[in-house]
Amino acid sequence: MEIFKKVRIFDFVKYSKYGLILSVFLTIGAFVLLFVKGFTPGIDFAGGSVAQIKYEKTAPIEQIRELLEKDPQFKGVQVSEFGSKEEVSIKIPIIEAFENQDLNPIITKILQPTGHFEIRKLDTVGPKVGNELRQKGILSLILATLAMMLYVSFRYEWRFALAGIVALVHDVIITAASVIVFNIDLNLEVIAALLTLLGYSINDTIIVFDRIREKMLINKTNNIEEVINEAISSTLSRTLLTSLTVFFVVLTLYLFGGEIIVGFSLPMLIGVVFGTYSSMFVAPKLAIIFGFDIEKYHAKEIKKAKKAQEKKQLRQMYENGRV
Q1: Protein export membrane protein SecD/SecF C-terminal domain location, by residue (predicted)?
Q2: Helical (H) or strand (E) element with 86
């Protein structure tokens, strides 16, 4: 299936400089957010409990907060709306006194004056388990990133490999910063979104790079910008179809999945946009900036083809008994 029946060559390289400027500012802003404000650890990583409560009418959030704060054991509790005006989320930090107790009857008793409600969900994570989850989540993200970097490094000429790696880090950093901007707690859903984005982003970049390499071998022109523009334009239909398909699926999850999976759906929405944009406007331009020389590449490929031909001739001579 093709969006564009006739391939039109767009000047992607010309507009990539504006994309790079935008990316530089966004990346700097992302690093500032990561190091100055930082993530808000969710229950998965910080430990504690989270209760999801549904009322028959509009939830009296202020009254709920006031009643809980009267009890010194619930110091630091966070109460917020959860998806609708009838539902609230109550985040309770680690309470040693309640470590081996069921919080259901305790919360029910304290909030009894607020009206009729139902505790739909109550999750509790101990401090030791939370610390283990945090370490494993961060380790999985680092190992996946290193694996992608290693794969790209072996597959492409080093300038293209470095460009792909920088674009990959760019996508992850900006997406991670969006978690802070939208005040999403750092939990396992966010880690899952970032891991998914790693695979999606590098796959998009690899497809573009493969087409660039293919065009360089077919077209013997020494104008790298012309080759890149033609390669990206020829993959534009595929890129848009894939990106829009993923985008609308994740958008559906975000709109109808509720607050429970917003930690996955929202970072993925942002990641799909930046992953697609970086594969077309960031990674190829970076390869040029890093000094990729298409003339040397052609000379290297000719030399490689010549050696392969010589080996083939020697093998034929050996098989025919002439060596």
Answers
A1: 109-290
A2: strand 84-92
The rounded distance, in Å, linking the Cα atoms of 83 and 253 is 13
Q: Are residues 280 and 138 in the same domain?
A: yes
Adjacent-strand bridge partners of 89: 52, 80
List the Cα angle 278/280/281 in 5-degree steps. 65
Could you count the other beta carbons within 10 Å of the beta carbon of residue 233? 18
Domain containing residue 195: CATH number: 1.20.1640.10
Average pLDDT of 162-177?
Answer: 91
Distance CA 288, CA 294 (A): 10
Which amino acid would we find at residue 318? Y
HSE-up (13 A, CA, CB side) for residue 53: 27
Q: Give the N- to C-terminal CA distance of the chain in Å, as an integer.
A: 52
- Residue 123 DSSP class: E
- Residue 322 has a pLDDT of 54
Q: Which residues contact 205 (CB under 8 A, 6 or more apart)?
A: 164, 167, 168, 278, 279, 283
Q: How confident is the model at residue 230 (pLDDT cuts 50, 70, 90)?
A: confident
> Residue 81, SS3?
strand
Closest CA to 44 of 141, 187, 140: 187
Contacts for 322 with CB less than 8 Å, ≥ 6 apart: none
Q: Could you tell me the residue range of the domain that residue 269 belongs to? A: 12-40+130-292
Flag whether pLDDT at 3 surpasses 70.
no
- Between CA 20 and CA 26 the distance in angstroms is 10
Other beta carbons less than 10 A from residue 176's beta carbon:
22
Q: How does residue 96 score in pLDDT terms, banded at 50, 70 and 90?
A: low
Q: Is residue 147 part of a domain?
A: yes
| Number of CB atoms found within 10 A of residue 120's CB | 11
State the helix-helix crossing angle for 127-155 and 188-218, rounded to 10 degrees. Answer: 0
CA 231 from chain centre, in angstroms, equals: 25
Whether 168 and 217 share a structural domain? yes
* Torsion angles phi and psi, residue 120, rounded to 5: -85, -25
Rounded-to-integer distance, Cα 180 and Cα 38, Å: 7
